Amino acid sequence: MTLLAILAVVGLSGCAGAPPRAALASESPPPTEPVPATSVPPEEDFSLPPADSAVAPAPAECKISPLSSEPCGAGVPLEKLADALELSDWAARDRALAPLESCEDIEPGLVRTLRVDLVPNFCADVWAEGYLAQQGASLRIDVRDALSGLALSARLSRLALSVPVLEGEVNRERFLEFFRGQLGRWIVEQARALYATAKLGAQLQGYGRGVVAVAAGVADMRFVEAIRTAPLPVEIASDEELRDVYFGQLDQALGPIKTRGRDGALVGLRRLAETGSLGGARVVAARALLSTLYGGRRIDALDELLLPELPESPSGDAMLRVAEHLPVFYSPFLLDPSHLEDEPFLRALSAKGIPSVFRKRLDRMALPYAARDLYARVLLRLGQTYWLSADFTRAASLLSAAPTPGAGTTPQAQLVGAVATALQHGPKDAADMMVRGPLLPDGVGNVAELDRIAKSKSPVAGLAAYNAAYILSLVPPVTDDGGYWSDVARRFKKAVSMLKQPKHKALARRRAESARATATAIRRRAPPKRLQ
User: Fold this and answer.
1) Contact 343/370 with Cβ under 8 angstroms?
2) What is the mean pLDDT of the chain?
3) CB 427 within 8 A of CB 437
4) Is residue 521 part of a domain?
5) Domain count, the chain
6) Are residue 446 and residue 360 in the same domain, yes or no?
7) 183-194: per-residue pLDDT in tens?
8) What backbone phi and psi angles, to 5 degrees, belong to 353?
9) Top-confidence residue, 39 or 158
10) N or C: which terminus of the chain has fewer CB atoms within 10 Å of its end residue's CB?
11) How confident is the model at residue 9 (pLDDT cuts 50, 70, 90)?
12) CA-to-CA dists, residue 296 to 44, 196, 300, 304, 404, angstroms
């Protein structure tokens, strides 16, 4: 019996071929403002369906902190919120946030959603399910979807964890019995639970949908890896040819699930990019998944750019402390956007990212140059994280719009503008990059402004020289006799002598050696010239 036949017996082929994330794949534009509250019939039930039996139970430490009977008072208690957000221990932080659920001037359900977001992900459903059952009908759509998405992501994090193991010597007969029996049942149960949970997430919008999409993508890949590590019969394990056939058939059967995992990560990244988030565990997980699946189309390719450090985060009042530590989704509900043109507020926000509703305001404002510089740096980092050409274009535009040439500019702003200019004609987003393949569009790589800075006496000349070489290394020509890569190696070598920090010098030196090795390999492959 072939492997594909075995997989058909246990039901994997049917689960793999089903479209559990069809709704996630066909994305419609999400609202750019927080979704308005809507009136909902009081009898409508917004509780989540019970978790599938295949979902592992939450660990014992997932206990909800008791709510305080102490009255919250009027307004948003920013001091208490700042004190809570600055706690590093998640349980202590949750205890400090719990009393704020009774604050009348905070959007209902927002503090509970924030609490759920900040506990370990595997606990999130414990905090969310009962609340949704009791209060779901009274919550804004975006808050309810965020809370539901966090709960579903917790369920997904507890799937495909403990794959059955066949002990002792594994021969063909025992392997088939194990695959049709214990392992087969596990595959069917886990595949069914992944499908059902991801399907619930596909009904959500905004941040909640993004959270579920990333968790579903990661769970799919964990499921694939679990099946790939199942023990092999001695007859297969000891025969290289049979082993190659086995894994070839297995990869063919698992291909649709890997594709689903990729799509989940891409949808999740798109939604998280729309929130304006500059990082966090979910962004890291989605990018890591895509890097594993598509090494030739690196989502993290821009991470090795050398960019100027942001100014030190301001120390100050509670509002700045909250802005620095609050996850991006919650900022429009709790922070006053009238402070957006104040540099300290904008700098504090930039630690986590700037929410889309605030970015829309910023785009309409006549910002002073220092604020434009800060905003452009955030946009460049967003583009760097998500491969968003529109953010590179906007950053370049912000920094080219000084009242007179050079007025108010700084060397750091000039460097940011030059990097953004070199990247602005790239893929529109991560999904576009995946479709295009490893080669970036021809418009990427206009390093003229970086070269100009590198030849000047600017304090960032070394950074400009390195970034020009690095961007050019991302856009090699289709055909090359080794000369292109030799030039890139020369550029990196020049940057080594110009950079100031030892870690930057070491990075440029490694890049120069790699480019030189590439040039040598290309020349060795080139056909010899014919004698005349």
Assistant:
1) yes
2) 84
3) no
4) no
5) 2
6) yes
7) 889 999 999 999
8) 125, 165
9) 158
10) C
11) very low
12) 48, 32, 11, 16, 43
